[in-house]
Each structure stands twice: as C-alpha cells, then as structure tokens.
Amino acid sequence: GTTFRANFKDYYDKKAILLKKITDTSKTLSDAAQTDANAANNKLADIANDNKLTPSDKQVTKKEWDIIVAEKPTIEAQATTYGITTEKTNYVSAYNTLNTYITPLLADLTTTSDIVGTTFRANFKDYYDKKAILLKKITDTSKTLSDAAQTTASEALSKANISKAITDKFGTTIDGGLIETVIMELREAGSTTITSGISGIQGTDKNLPAFWAGGTYQQALDGAAKAIIYHDGKAKFTDGEFSGTINATSGIVGGFSIGASSLVATSGSNTMALSADLIRFNGQYSEIVFGNNVLPMGANGDAINTPITITVNRPTPNQYVPYGNMGLWIDVTGVKQFDDAGMQYSGNHALYITHGTTVGFRPRVRRVSTSQTLSTLDTVIFCVASSEVITLTLPTNAENGQIYFIKKSTSPNFIVTAVGRDYIMTNSSTKSITVKNKHLIILIYDKVNGLWMFGLANE
Fold this sequence. Notes:
Blueprint: H1 2-47, E1 52-53, H2 55-81, H3 86-105, E2 113-114, H4 117-166, E3 173-175, E4 178-180, E5 183-187, E6 194-199, E7 209-213, H5 217-222, E8 227-230, E9 235-237, E10 252-253, E11 256-258, E12 262-267, E13 270-275, E14 278-282, E15 286-291, E16 308-312, E17 365-368, E18 372-373, E19 380-383, E20 390-393, E21 403-408, E22 414-417, E23 423-425, E24 429-430, E25 432-435, E26 440-446, E27 451-458
Parallel strand pairs: 17-19, 18-20, 19-21, 20-22, 23-27
Antiparallel strand pairs: 1-2, 3-4, 5-6, 6-7, 7-8, 8-9, 10-11, 11-12, 12-13, 13-14, 14-15, 15-16, 21-26, 22-25, 23-24, 26-27
Helix pairs in contact: 1-4, 2-3, 3-4
C-alpha cells in the first residue's frame, strides 16, 4: 500500500512542480514582454516624430523587426499548445499588418523614406498590444492548469493519508488523558464540513501540515487553509496579530525581501534597500542614497563625508527632442518674507545654508538669437544674434531676488525691457535699456518695489 501511494504521490508532485514552473516562466516572459514593448514603443515613437525614416532609423527599426520575426513561431506554438484561438488570431493579424507595412520601408537601408508617424507608431503599438494580450492569456491558462494539477495532487495525497490513518495498525488509543492517533479532523456542529485538524503524518520531507484551521485537510495540503503549522516548523497564516519579538532573516514582508541585515523591495528596474547604515533608491537611470556616509566607493576614501548622494544618468533617447535630467526638484511657497533684522529665516527658502560653501556652482547658460521673454528659470544669457537688434523682455512673475547675467559678445546691441508695473533702475527708473556690444549686465529683482536693479559689469 505504501509503494502504491508513494508512486502516485510522486507523479502528482512532479506534475504540479512542472506546471508551476511553466506558469512562472510564462509570467516572467509576459512581464518582460510588456517592459520590452514599452521600451520599443518609446524608441520607435522618437524615430517617427519627424515623419522621416533615415538610414540610422531603419537600422534601429530593423533590429526591432528581426526580434519580432524571430519570436513569432515560439509564441504561436505556445498558444497552440494551450488551445488559445481568439487572442492568437488577433496577434497573427497584427503581425501580418505590421509585416505588410514595414517590409517595403526596410527594403533599402541606405535611403531616407517618408512615413506618416502616427501610422508607423500605431502599427507597432498594435502588434505589441496584441502580443502582450496573448502572452497574458498563455500565462493565465497555464496557471489554471497548474492550479488544477496542484489540487489533483493534494486531493490524491489527502485521500491516501486519510486511508493510511484509517487502516493504521495501532488504531486510536485513549489512556486517561492521553490520546494517540494519526489524524484528527474537527468539524462544525451539526455539519460534516471539516474546519480544522491535527495530523501526525510528516511526509518524506517532513514538511506536511501538523495543525491547520479554516479549511479541510486537502486545503491544508494545498496551502489554502487559513492557518497552517507544518512539521518542519514553518507556518502560514492568512491574517494575524503578533506581539513580542519577531526574528526573521528571510522571507517577504509588505513587498520587501528580508535579508540578514536589510530589507529590499523591487519593482521592475526600481529597487529600494533599507539597512542600519543607509536607505537607497535605485532606478534604471537614477539613484539616491541616504546614510551615515554614502559617498561612492573610491571617492577620496574617508577624506570626504556626505549623508546624501543623488545620481542621474539618463541618456537622451533622441538628440532632436528636448529632454531634461534633474538631480533635485524643489518648490517652496506659502509664507511672507520680512526684511526686519534677525528675520532672515522668514520667507520661502529652497535651500537654507547656515554654514558651509557651495562648490562647483554652475548656473545654466542659454544662448538666444531672437527676441523673447526670459524665463524665471534663466540665469545666464548669452546674446548671439549677429545681424539684428533683439529685445529681451523681463518676466512679470519673477521671484524676489531673481538674478540675470546677460552678455553680448557680438554686434549689434540688444534691448532689455520691463513690462507691467516693473521698471529697470539705472540712474533713474526706466522701462527699457539698450546694452552695447560686449557689455555684461546684471539685473536683480526687487519684487516689493517692482524694480530691476541694474549693474554694468564691464565696458
């Protein structure tokens, strides 16, 4: 009997393990496919922005197309294996549409082809969308089969163990307050439904349920009962309240993986790590670290100490489209500034530095060649217009203390104009000034009086 049960149990166990592996692999592929699709869509969208497919654009597009062509037989075979028809048909249709559209464009990789950017993006997006839907269907279907196989295996094991308990040669003995038995199942009053139990059967690996509640013995074997304590000391609870000391060096809590001395949470390319000496956030293109001393390894050893580092290294996806990387975004508003002595703390301070210097200060430099209104995010302006007099209009929403350094290094002159209630203060207040070639001027805004204080740095 033991051999009979063991052979069937081994088959069902191995079947459940294999199907779970298939499910996990399918889900990994499905998640990766969605990530890859998002990246590819973004890349191809940049390519199609100018409605031109240049030779370099074609090389990038062909690389994506070659991947699509190579993966199609495998995806179709998986869909056929699981008997998936509707999602497979939609996927093949999207592939055929993209094939018809892209093949002529890639016939000659040395010339530039005119395209309609929206059509280009739509065909690729439709393919990736249909692919993601099909892979999700494959994952869901394989999980359903895996769950069914696990249920079948657990049902077989449950029946075998209960049969073993019923036919146990020692039976159940009661000696005073001592009861010895193999399995004890408890049920609801007036019902045959099993709600909890105790089992002395450890299993080959000594990891079967010893105590369970909130389910049948089969559900305990499935791991679906509400509370389970296993023979190897492990436990599983759907919910609970715990007090006292909890020690853990592995496992997952709230999405964080427990390590010997840290917690780590991961979502796609994003990671957060928490330990006694630091908190670190990592992304695909950025990292921020807080801690006692988080200077990168090899950066002057112990000579420099810093509790915060911020790193951003996102490359420009398309050199013809404006992008920006920022290490820190600060927006502080809400209170009134007082100019009284001792009240320097009043106002809205993006940085409040009581001691220390600023090292490596570099304001952004912008080169302008046409008349325009300056931004409150400008600081250093180089006028590079070579043939016409341009007018730079000062903004009406400048913050108190806004500073501009404006330099003209070529002829002709340029004009700076204040608008609204604002004036420029030179020897007297005026609405505009003309700045000669090669002069560097400095303007500092007094918001209380609506005056731009003017200074000439050089002749």
